[in-house]
Write a structure and sequence with these properties.
Blueprint: H1 2-22, H2 35-53, H3 56-62, E1 63-71, E2 75-78, H4 79-88, E3 96-105, E4 108-116, E5 122-131, E6 139-148
Parallel strand pairs: 1-6
Antiparallel strand pairs: 1-2, 3-4, 4-5, 5-6
Helix pairs in contact: 2-3, 2-4
């Protein structure tokens, strides 16, 4: 009797994980829209629109004072150069953001996403956001890594 009960328990335990994976409750998981994804999705879209329109007031608010943009081959662009470039490219269409993932790392947030320009060029982007003025301050972009795909 005990042997039959153990076999029944074993059969149930092995069937449950397979069922969870089949219906989306296990395995790789189900993508969930979190508060961070909403927050940083909106910030990233606002930043993209500001870059496209040359809106230096919004860029000034969103970019931290020591912001750096880093690209392959040790290319680094400082905050002022990015703002000047945005003013020069004013009037272009804003880039489209997709595949956003956001991770909280201590007092920072790390956002990973793909950015597609109107001309079809796509870049892989990793942004590091920090709070300006402490834990209750507004989010500002501290560092961006870009890689063309």
């Amino acid at each position: 009797m005990i042997r039959a009960l153990l076999l029944l328990c074993l059969a149930c335990c092995t069937a449950l994980p397979a069922q969870a994976q089949a219906d989306g409750r296990g395995g790789a998981g189900v993508p969930t829209l979190t508060l961070y994804m909403k927050t940083f999705g909106a910030l990233e879209q606002e930043l993209s629109a500001a870059q496209a329109s040359g809106d230096t007031a919004t860029l000034d608010r969103l970019l931290g004072p020591f912001f750096e943009l880093r690209r392959p081959r040790q290319e680094t662009e400082a905050r002022e150069a990015l703002m000047a470039g945005s003013r020069a490219r004013r009037g272009r269409a804003a880039a489209t953001l997709s595949d956003l993932s956001v991770y909280e790392v201590g007092a920072e947030a790390v956002a990973y996403f793909l950015l597609r320009e109107a001309d079809g060029q796509t870049r892989s982007v990793v942004d590091v956001w920090t709070r300006a003025g402490g834990p209750a301050g507004p989010w500002q972009l501290r560092l961006r890594f870009e890689q063309p795909l």
